[in-house]
Structures are given as C-alpha cells and as structure tokens.
Amino acid sequence: MAKIDAEIAAVVRYIFSFAVGIGLIYYFRRYIISFIKSQKLRLFAWTLNRFMTKINKILRKEKETVFRHLDSLCEKLGHPLTVLEVGSGPATNFDYYPRRTEIVCLEPNPYFKSYIEQNAHKHKNISLSRVVQGFAERMDYLEDSSFDAVVCTLVMCSVRDPRQALDEVKRVLKPGGIFIFVEHVAAREGSFVNKIQKMMNPVWKTLCDGCNLTRNTAKYIQNAGFSDVNIVNFQLQWGFRLLTLFIRPSIYGYAIKGTRI
C-alpha cells in the first residue's frame, strides 16, 4: 500500500510540475515569442552579412552596369546625390556609389545597423546620413520629393506589398529622379523552374525572412507609373547549378519619375 501511495504521489508531483511549467510558459509567452523573434532577426542579419559578400561578387557586373546611371545623374546635376537605399541589409552596395553620395539606409531589421555602420566606415568616399528602421510600404517619416535616387537590390522579393512600396519610392523621388534595381524574380509562368519555385516558396519564405520566389517584380515596376522603364533579364550565375535553379531568374534596370533630367 505504501508503495502504491508513493507512486501516486510521484505522478501527482509530475503532473503538478508539468502544469506549473506550462503555466509559466503561457504567462511569459509574449516575452518568449519576442525573444525568439529577436534572435531570429539577429541570426538572419549575421548570416546575410557574410552571405552578401559572395552575392556582391556574383552580381558585380550587373550592379556596375546599373549603378553607372547614378554616375550619369551626378554629372548632369553637378552636385553629389542624395540617395535612399531601401532594404539595405549590411550595405554592400556602398562599393558602387559615386563619390560624396549622401545615403539614407532604410532597413526593417535593427541588427543590420552595426554592419551598415561598419561598411560606411570602410567607404570614406560616401556619406552615411542616417539609418532608418522601417518598411518600404510606409515611409511617411521621409519627405516627398527628397531624393535624387532610390536603390533596391534583392528587396522587392521580400516586401509585403510591392505596389505600395513602389508608390512610396515614387513619392520620395524628386521629379526626374531615378529608381534602380537588381532583383531575382519568378520564372516564366508554366515553365519547369516556375513550378519548382511554387513548390519551394512556402518553405523558402519561412527560412529567408519573407523572400518570395514567385513574385513578378518586373510587372509591378512596369505598372507603377514611372515615365521611363528599362528592364534587363538575366540569370544569376550561382555555383551548385541544380540546387540554385529556382533563384536564377533575375532582372536589373532603372525607372524614371516624370521627365528625365
């Protein structure tokens, strides 16, 4: 009888301990969820900071081509550019800006700020005006017609609402200002790669902070109301050809707000 009583007491203690544990988790659930989210953002920033160095080398030709439009604009204006870089990440694009460009970096992940500042310190030829934590879809803290250029590289795949983001890009651009972009996009509808993208997309979005494999970014840009749009299709030249097939389709180009300067 004593043995049975001891076993029952042990079960009761176990159930009580389990209930207390569940209760504590439930009570502190907001703090736990917040901590997990913050650590996920920190890990993503740390990983991308290292990964973007390789991506920058892969995209060097395309970036050098599209960033030349900023050099041309700077020459036409006769003064250093004011540029907004949307979704700047660790700011590896600092390699490509014209001398004395004044840059505002917009980035939703707060853990990228230290990497942005480190990169700015390495590039004495440009000026980092400030780092703003925020999203492309709502930039009401930035004034209308306040930038000569807006830059997006590998960003439009992750914004929640590309139409609203492009409306904001147009709003903050000065008349005659230029929007330049380099993006990976959805493959041709119905193609083998497009089918793979659709299959992979749910998992990819979860792992890569909302990155969307099936977004037709070119169509969004063409329909955004810019006066002059130039888009070039290309294939990202990754290693591991079969493993990266679904993120190869890409575009780069520019769009002008209003009349070209």
Key attributes of the depicted protein:
261 residues; 2 domains; 7-stranded mixed beta sheet; 7 strands; transmembrane helix; Thiol_S-MT; Methyltransferase type 11 domain-containing protein; membrane; S-adenosylmethionine-dependent methyltransferase activity
Structure commentary:
The protein is 45% helix and 20% strand. The chain is an alpha/beta fold and 261 residues long. The protein has a 7-stranded mixed β-sheet. It is globular, with a radius of gyration of 24 Å. The termini are far apart.
> What percent of residues adopt helix (DSSP H or I)?
40-55%
Number of strand segments: 7
Query: Can you tell me the number of structural domains?
Result: 2
| First and last CA, distance | 95 Å
Oligomer: single chain
Structure in a nutshell:
This protein is of the alpha/beta class. It is built from 7 helices and 7 strands; from the N terminus they run αααββαββαβααββ. The longest helix is centred in the first third of the chain and has 30 residues, at 29-58.
